[in-house]
Amino acid sequence: MFWSTDSSIAEVMAFTLGRRLVLSLLLVLVVLVLSFSLLFLAVWTTSSAVVVVAVAAPRVRITVVYYTALNPAKWRDLVGMQLWTLVECGLAAAADSVEVVFSSLGDDAAGRQQLAEAAEFAELLLGGVAALRVATHPGNHYEYPGIRRAFDLAAEGELRGESEDEQRRHLVLYHHGKGMFSTKGDQTKGGALLTVTPVVVEGWRGIVQRFANDSAMNKAGYITSPAGFHWYNFWWARASYLRLLEPPQVHDEDRFYYERWLGGLYNPTTGQVQNAGATDALSLCAGNRGRVLNYACPNTKIRWRC
Question: Please, what is the Cα angle at 137 between 110 and 188, to 5 degrees?
Answer without folding.
Answer: 75
